[in-house]
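Section 3.1: Structural characterization of target chains.
Under the original work plan, the team committed to producing a structural model for every single-chain target entering the pipeline before any wet-lab resources were allocated. The record below documents one such target. The sequence was received from the expression subgroup and is listed exactly as submitted; it comprises 111 residues.
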Amino acid sequence: MMPKLMAAILTALLNLAVGFIVFFLMLLAMNGFSESDANYGIVAYIILAVAATILMALLAAATVYLLMKRGWGAAGSVILGVVIFSGVGAGLKVVCSVIGVLVADFARVHF
């Protein structure tokens, strides 16, 4: 139980850190948008980023469970789960920021 919890917490913390960095870079990318239009993109990013963080934490815990069931040690399972799903989460955060900018652009053009 403890290795799964540790993998989930570490993965969530790393994903949150990457999420904050990507959030501020997304704010720089939306420099020309008005505040009302940018709010749609920011809300879309926050919702998607939180969902991605929770998903990555759950997948890291599931990976640790499966690896330990197959005979891997606790430390190796945690390290592998955290590294893989922190990297995938970082990629998803970049995709979420692009979606956020596209939502803000859609709001600017259509509303």
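DSSP finds three helices and no strands in the chain.
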